[in-house]
Structure formats: C-alpha cells, structure tokens
Prior knowledge:
Chain A is an alpha/beta fold and 253 residues long. Chain A has helices spanning 31-45, 63-66, 79-89, 101-107, 109-118, 158-161, 167-170, 187-205, 220-223, 227-241, and strands spanning 8-12, 51-55, 70-73, 94-100, 123-128, 178-183, 211-216, 245-248.
Amino acid sequence: MTLAEVPTRIVYSRPEVLDKRVTHYCPGCTHGVAHRLVAEVLEEMGEVENAIGVASVGCSVFIYNYFNIDFVEAAHGRAPAMATGIKRLLPDRTVFTYQGDGDLASIGMGEIVGAASRGEKITVIFLNNANYGMTGGQMAPTTLPGQKTTSSPYGKDAARFGKPFRIEDAYSGFDMGYLARGALVGAANINRAKKMIRKAFEKHMDNQGLCYVELLSPCPTNWNLAPLKAKDFLLEEMTKHFPLGEFKGGDAK
Amino acid sequence: MPAKGYIEVNELYCKACELCVTDCPYGVLALDMERLTSKGYHPAHMVQPEACTGCGICAVVCPDAAITVYRYERQKGEA
C-alpha cells in the first residue's frame, strides 16, 4: 500500500469561527494565536451564536473582521464600559472584550478598574506585548525597566516612569471570577493559555464576576527582534516581571 | 519508520515567522527559500515528511492558523 492510499483523518484545522481573510498582524505576532484560541474555545463551548465581542483600539482594532461572530468596536479604552452595558441589557449572552495593553492598562485603566470593582459579569482577554504596537512601539505602563522603545530610546527608567503594571497586584482587593496570566509562545504555554481562556468563559457563564485572562505576546517589529529572538525575550525577560499562572479563581485555592 | 501524519500549509496565511520550524520536535519543517507566496514570504514546508508524527505542535504555535494536520489511519500490521 502506498502512502497516498492510506486513509487519513484531520486532527487539526483552522476554526470555522475565524474568518477566511488574512490578518494584518506582523509575522511572529501572536495576536493570531489569541484569536484562534478564543475562536476554538467559543466553538467547543457552543457559544458561537451567543457570543458578543467588544473590540478595542490598538493592533487588534480590526478583530471584528477576523471573527464570524457579533462584534462591536468601542472607543479607545472603553471596551469594559461598553461590555458592561451589553451584558446588563442582554444577561444571557457571552460578552467579552479583547484589549491590548495600551488600551486596557493605559487609557482604559479607569474603565477596567471600574468594571472589576463593580464585579461586572464580563470576560476580558488582555493581550500584553509591553508597548503600544499600532502607533509604532511607544512606551506603555507594561514596558519592562530598561526596555528600549521609540519614546524611551535609552531604556525605560523605572524610577521615573514606574514599574511594569501588574494586574494581580492592582486588583488584589476586588472580588473577581477569574484572574490568570498565560503566554502565547511554545505549544505548552499556548495549551495552558487555552485552558485559562476556557476556564474564564466557563466562570463567566456561571456569572462569577469579571473573568480576566492576560496573555503575554511578543511584538517582533517594535522590539526590533526577529520572531524567534522575540520569543526568547518574552520567555526570559518578560516572565520575570509578569509571572505566569492563575491568581484568582484557579484550582489551587 | 513510516510517517504517521502530514501537514498542509495554507500559503495564503503563512507569513514565514519560523515559529513552527523551531517548535517542531522532529525537525520536519523548514522555510522554502526557492518560492514566494502571494504576500512575498517564503512559506513553511515539509523537508523531512517521513519524520512527521502528526502531533500538531506546528499548528498550535502558528499565529495565522495556516496549518492543517492529518494523521494516517493505518490498520494494525500495515506498513
């Protein structure tokens, strides 16, 4: 029997929730991985028809083009506020926001803190790539100390501009459904991140309050590193400041 | 050992980031430096198809969901 005659089965294919169009993301950017994981989780949970996404401003501003689900675009940083309104009017729907770190941790800090303190029953997918990717790689609250960006060409001075913003410290007093941080490089990390997203959506369905998953992503273009070096930088440097794991609502309580 | 699976790379989506090439545990993949996709990237392709186990790690790490993974369904005793 030749190889061509052996029957085959598909073990992995592109999720149908993802649109057929090609994303505008740079090579090596893992926004696409985050999109795919969200798409897979929604497909597995049978929530495709029920889901409403709220897009943010940043590199992920065109996310509504890449998903075949309901999506609305919020003003910069205001996705949690918009999601709050949608969820309160349509409490049966699965409402999630997809935000970058310039959007969530900087301009939209007030909205996310407000949503967390009110315990809004939404899911937040937060993609952290340590800079403002869309506008050309400026310094963000999540930029690492010493990291060179276009607005900190000599490296970020932590004494002047602060340490990287860590959500688990800032939100330690709030009652949240789920709070976890994963990374989007390497198959093991990606599978773990998918479980986190799944758990966040499950707790969201149980109305357990704000469910929040932070995903560390490389930004090869603005870090001025090739995709493989950016991956190493993320695993070696970024995880020192942003430890991976579950902080609230995990199994290890 | 005969291949246990194979992959197909959709060259519309492949952006030559090489993440699948380095994450493949069996060294099956490489960029095809002799061809360009319509977007101008060298697409990933299989250079050692006999080593592929169909594990799917390349598809998991692919940021553009370009890879479809197939596994051969052999009966026991077949080569």
